[in-house]
Design a protein that fits this description.
This protein is α+β, with helices and mostly antiparallel strands. The protein is built from 3 helices and 4 strands; from the N terminus they run βαββαβα. The model has no long low-confidence stretch (mean pLDDT 95).
């Protein structure tokens, strides 16, 4: 299991379009992937779950991956967030 803390810096946070990009990217991996905000943890491959966290600009989240490609998943998803979702 790999955990990485990431700061959301894009204007709209992890909402609508950025959340969709994130989920599409997360679904490319075999590993189980979660997003944690405070005490809540949701499946990072679920749009409803991700949107339910209400992640806005300036929020720090944990990305958690567990599986055969966990390191690659964490690195890819972290880079997507730090690039402000510009692929």
């Amino acid at each position: 299991m790999v955990i990485r803390e990431v700061l959301i810096n894009n204007q709209v946070g992890l909402h609508a379009r950025p959340a969709t990009f994130f989920i599409q990217k997360a679904n490319e991996f075999k590993s189980s992937i979660w997003i944690e905000k405070g005490e809540r943890r949701v499946n990072a491959k679920s749009l409803l779950g991700v949107l339910s966290l209400g992640i806005v600009k300036g929020t720090t989240i944990n990305i958690i991956a567990d599986g055969s490609d966990e390191v690659e998943a964490i690195n890819t998803l972290s880079e997507l967030i730090t690039s402000d979702f510009s692929e």
